[in-house]
Each structure stands twice: as C-alpha cells, then as structure tokens.
Design goal:
single chain; 184 residues; alpha+beta; Nucleotide Exchange Factor Grpe, Chain A, domain 2; three-stranded mixed beta sheet; 3 helices; 18% strand
Length: 184
C-alpha cells in the first residue's frame, strides 16, 4: 500500500522514483562523447545490416550451388557412357545391309532394343542430342572435323555430321563433330 502513495516535495510537485537517476547537467566533453558513441553505434548497426545481408546472399548462393551439384552430378557418368552409345550406333550401321543372312537381322533387332533402352535411360537423366545436320555451323555446338568443297549447300553450313553432340540439361557436354561446306 505504501508503494501507491505518491510523495510530494515542499512545492507540491512529484519526486522522481528512487530507481531513476536524477537529472544531471552534462559537460560539453560528455556531450561530445555521447555523440561519438552514437556515431559508433550507427556505424555498428550499418555493419550488422550489411553482414546480415551478406550472410543471406551467401546462404542463397550456397543453396544454388548445392542444387547445381545435384542436378549435374551424373555428367561424368554420362560422358563415359557416350562411347558405348556410339558403338551401338556403329554396330547398327554395320548390320543394316539387307544382303546379310537372317542371323544379322536378329543381331540388329537386339542391338536396336539395347540402343533404344540406353537412349531412353540417358534421356530420362537429362541427356539430349545436338542435331547438326543441315544447320549453319555454330562453334558453340559443333566441332569442325574438316571442310569439304561443294556447291550443294551454302558456305559455312554443316554438310554432314560425323559424330553426334550432346547436351546435359542445357549444358553442352560434347559438341557435334561435323564436316563444314566451303565454296570450291
């Protein structure tokens, strides 16, 4: 009950509570120190905000890098499988002759099945072929193996594709090997 009683001084005004310090006049040096400390506090606050923003940017960048690492984790494996795919396609080309006996046709059917299965697996993993035949030569997608003089197609256009190129999720992992046309 005594806490609720307000004490008044002789002039009738209220006295400050006991837990608050009394108002003290500050010297010019003390005011200057307070200003310096306030400036330092502002500087530290700005630094904290910048570092917090940097940390958030780092977290986002690290998350993106983790996603890229997961998305492109199989790139090395796919690159190793490409010669296998090439071998299947060469075997198919070798057995495509209709003058061969029936055993060659069954071999060809088996190779076609394995090749289609392998292509399906690679496509599901994100691999896609770069088709270069009949297109203008693009050094970002094609590797010029040689040039051939011809009037059949315009100069600088792919005359024929020797080796297929491949992309893995929109990233070129092997350019297409091509023969480029040039004027005679």
């Amino acid at each position: 009950m005594e806490d609720n009683v307000k004490s008044e001084n002789a002039e009738g005004s209220q006295a400050p509570p006991a837990d608050l310090p009394a108002v003290v006049a500050l010297t010019p040096d003390q005011i200057e120190q307070i200003k310096e400390r306030a400036a330092k506090a502002d500087e530290y606050w700005d630094r904290l905000l910048r570092q917090t923003a940097d940390l958030e940017n780092y977290k986002k960048r690290a998350a993106r890098e983790r996603q890229d690492a997961v998305a492109y984790a199989n790139e090395g494996l796919l690159t190793k499988l490409l010669p296998v795919l090439d071998a299947f396609e060469m075997a198919l080309a070798a057995t495509a002759n209709p003058n061969k006996p029936a055993a060659a046709h069954s071999l060809q059917a088996g190779i076609v099945m394995v090749s289609n299965q392998l292509k399906s697996i690679l496509a599901d993993a994100g691999l896609e072929e770069v088709n270069a035949a009949g297109k203008p030569f693009d050094p970002n997608l094609h590797e010029a193996v040689s040039q051939e003089q011809t009037n059949e197609v315009p100069e600088g256009q792919v005359l024929r594709q020797i080796r297929k190129g491949y992309r893995f999720r929109n990233r070129l992992i092997r350019p297409a090997g091509v023969v480029v046309a040039r004027k005679p």
